[in-house]
Amino acid sequence: MDPRPARARWTRHGTAARRRLGSLYQRYFRETRRERLFLASLSFFITFAVTRLITHAIRRGELFGEVWIHGQHVHHLVWGILLLLAVGYGWLIQVGSGHVQTSRIASRVMAALYGAGAALTLDEFALWLNLKDVYWEREGRVSVDVVLLFGALVSAGLWGGPFLRAVVRETARVVRFTWRTTQRRWRKGRLH
User: Fold this and answer.
1) Residues sharing a CB contact under 8 Å with residue 39, sequence separation 6 or more, in sequence order
2) pTM > 0.90
3) How many separate domains does the chain show?
């Protein structure tokens, strides 16, 4: 049995896993355009899911209420449009666009903000289409949920597919190694 405390072993394994994940990320996202597309898709999907969770919690009364300004209900569509306008302006002046020597961090942030803005805006697509609030009605939920979820998953897989497949392969390798090591230790302990 390993004399080191379990916490030290897990910390060491976690650090190695983070290094491997970082190495895989750098390998599959050398091209900043591909990385920006993947981050925008990932941000879109996460923002969509979080937005849906929050709106359901608000409706059930488990979270704070809706946002009202001067007696007017402000839908999250508005925040999405504002984010898209800010990112569009940032890209016009080439912040994080890759056209000039800008920070890679700025590029990542702008891509993530774009994905979040798109999710907030498209989550209320039914409001655009019907020009009335049908968010909780059948026509506001069914088609929009399916289209947006499918679009987010396809785009995340398209731009991040090679990286995600590599992460799955690496995870499977670690699980197999851990399983084999555990079996060997069990056998040694069982035989002696």
Assistant:
1) 108, 111, 112, 115
2) no
3) 1
